[in-house]
Amino acid sequence: MPFRVSLHRDGVWIEQSGTHFQAPSEFRLTDLFTSEAPVDLLQTLVARSRALTPPASRSSPLAPIESQEVWAAGVTYLRSRTARMEESKDSGGGTFYDKVYHAARPELFFKATPHRVAAPGTPVRIRADSAWNVPEPELTLAINHRGAIFGYTIGNDMSSRDIEGENPLYLPQAKVYDRSAALGPCLWVTDVPPPATTEIAISIHRGGQPVFAGATHISQIKRTFPELAEYLFRDNAFPQGCYLMTGTGVVPPDDFTLRSGDEIRITIEPIGTLINPVA
Fold first, then answer.
1. How crowded is residue 4: how many other Cβ atoms within 10 Å of its Cβ?
2. Count of other CB atoms within 10 angstroms of residue 128
3. 235 CA to centre of own chain
């Protein structure tokens, strides 16, 4: 039975089949990332806890992250490959993206430390030195300290397309900056991988009106999730576990860029909807 785990200022909340439980005060989200059997651990906590009705005034969840690093995979969808090649055509870097899409080794890059991650309902940012910025909606893997995938959340991998397009070596500046990522609204913990039909949908509103919407299915991803996790953990230790964004298959048209005040909504069921305004 899957669990929806959310982090709040008053501790960790666990939801199972619509019933809510508050974890003991000594329990931390990181305990799931260092556990050998996160599902069993949650089942034990639920069996020991009393079912509660969360107050309507309960604050919005925090980002489901404590001491974990956030990494990301690139060019895992054909749509992403095409977009990256188009944005880099003037710099001559487009062939790199075609090569990595077909290569055995995936593109993996560091994305964020916890303080750079926006919580649900709080602003993500666009760089002041960039004129072409987009969100990237991504199913995000929760991986324990041994490299085993145990859960999933929604990730927004904010990207400055003009900076990366100018030169592929500028990727860290295009991807890593304050509030360049968002995670939430919860961590979906389960032993059962999401089905290939799982949809990733995004909509962007400006002044209350939709200006972009798109969707894809994880069946369109070229690589398997265990493959991505295995490459990430090669000669790389994560004692507190980590998150891995798995790439985007939804890219706005080339004439679109985010503006301050926009609202980004990313939905992946059964995880929920991640909503962030743009600062």
1. 21
2. 6
3. 23
Of the candidates 254, 135, 237, 231, the one whose C-alpha atom is nearest the C-alpha of residue 183 is 135
pTM of this prediction? 0.94
DSSP-assigned letters across all residues of 178-203: TT-EEEEEEEEE-SSPPPTT-EEEEE
Main-chain dihedrals φ then ψ at residue 51, nearest 5 degrees? -65, 135
pLDDT tens figures, 110-161: 999 999 999 999 999 999 999 999 999 999 999 999 999 999 999 999 999 9
Beta strands in the chain (DSSP E): 3-8, 11-16, 19-22, 69-74, 107-112, 117-118, 133-134, 137-143, 149-157, 159-160, 181-189, 199-206, 209-217, 242-245, 263-268, 272-277
CB atoms within 10 A of CB 161: 24
List the CATH code of the domain at 69-277.
3.90.850.10
Q: How confident is the model at residue 54 (pLDDT cuts 50, 70, 90)?
A: low
Q: Alpha-carbon distance 237 to 81, whole Å?
A: 29
Which residue spans of the chain are classified as CATH 3.90.850.10? 69-277
